[in-house]
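Bench notes, bay 3.
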Amino acid sequence: MMNLDALDRRILAQMQRDASLTNQDLAAAVLATPATCLRRVRRLREAGLIERVVALLNPQIAQTALGAGLDAVVEVSLDVQSTDRLDGFEARAAAFPEVQQVLRVSPGPDFVLHIHVRDMPAYQALAQTLFAADSNVRNVRSFFVTKRAKFEPSIPVRP
């Protein structure tokens, strides 16, 4: 268990808002010296609390620029829920770059997937490969996103 003080929490909150800040700007934003800030960020990374730093793309602009425009939330239920069968499906789903999230859930379906593909034919091809070809997949319910009202990837950090 990692002990986080108020400065660590300010650093984490700020980095979740904008991880592109220089160390100097981050230190100013969290009211710390650059050396202290750098040391704290390094410790948070080494501890694994900061898993990685990524760029978030705007899906509306990406749809035009990249031609990727269909989001689906998919519930998947398996016939057999043994550990090896659950782990196997999870690993197969996670291997597809179009599958952005694989969540094992309970109760209800065994998995909820968030999938982002170019269009409906691309979704159908993925569904054929991932779901229809797997004899252990019992039920699939797909929901297609018509509007993204909110997307917030950050974890709330209490002071």
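Next record in the batch:
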Amino acid sequence: MQLSGWHEALLGVSGAMRAWLLDTGSLTQRITGRCAQFGVREVYQRDDCPLRDEAGIVGVGVRQHALLRDVYLYCGKTPVVFAHSVLPHPSLIGRWAKLGRLGSRPLGAALFSDPLVQRECLQYRKVDARHPLYSQAVSAVMSPPVYLWARRSLFTLAAQRILVTEVFLPDILTL
């Protein structure tokens, strides 16, 4: 399965979607500022192998398990973002010990509230039916488009790493 295609330069997108993708602040906070009723719905949390390209970024072996967390960010009853996080087990200690038990609380709020957490460069790509995150993301969309824009970034705290991928659903543009 081909999973390459992530780029640090954002090419081929303009307008409102570009502004969402390039924003380096807390996505949770940005959505909350534009939405009267923000919510997080946990879709799945499991101990499993991350995707091949994710494993290398977070420093785990291809067959090594990590905590995978998939959620939708909602504005009212409308899903606007599908978020997929890879939390290696060694990262779920110390200051990040509670991140494995967030439930319907946003991961972004926890990461951006700690001044010691660093965010590395954003990477971007279009995801379509060939990418495993696409089918998960569009399961909550009435009329799925041919592709969706996604971004991902690595958050670090000392030697601990967490990878967060955000797939932007079509209704993000209504905010």
